[in-house]
Amino acid sequence: MTQLARLRGFIQSVTRLLDDGADEARIFRDGRPLLADLVRHDDWLPDAYAQPHPDHYQQYLLHCDPLERFSVVSFVWGPGQTTPVHDHTVWGMVGILRGAELCEEFDAHGQPAGRHELRPGQVDLVSPNVGDVHRVSNLLADAVSVSIHVYGANIGRVERHVFQPDGTRRPFVSGYANELLPNLWV
Ligand SMILES: [Fe+2]
């Protein structure tokens, strides 16, 4: 088995779930252990998709479903880097591959609602149904952290929002850092 076979198998399993008509609740129930299994092994992500940027976090597209029903993205945080407070508008699962992350939760009005730490192998859930607004930071001051995210859309093209401290929102489309994709078939 080549290392990317892990990612290929994960993508195949999520595709089968969606082909089977799985709704968000079933994706969270059946997809979460699939993502947990993927991030339990840190031996498959090509280095090109784990490179930090000196100034801000990176998001690398690893795969987008041809029908844009889901996308898989690697997020890479350098020491001390953080996202803005943002929403997703679709279901999402966040699996920690490397390092450690701090997730600060906010309510739909952008007000603080809790925080928790995430370690390798753990999977977090987001969606408008289970809590959709958060800020994610690298917990480590001296190392890179990497997480693998799965969303119920082509997330880099989704029109969503960044929240200001006063709760006001502005439109946000994240895009992707990469123009090339990993070859799942080597
Ligand atoms: Fe997020």
TrEMBL record:
GO molecular function, one term: oxidoreductase activity, acting on single donors with incorporation of molecular oxygen, incorporation of two atoms of oxygen
Entry superkingdom: Bacteria
A Pfam family assignment: CDO_I
Native organism: Zemynaea arenosa
UniProt: Fe cation binding residues: H86, H88, H134
Stated name of the protein: Cysteine dioxygenase
Family the entry assigns: Belongs to the cysteine dioxygenase family.
Annotated keywords: Dioxygenase, Iron, Metal-binding, Oxidoreductase
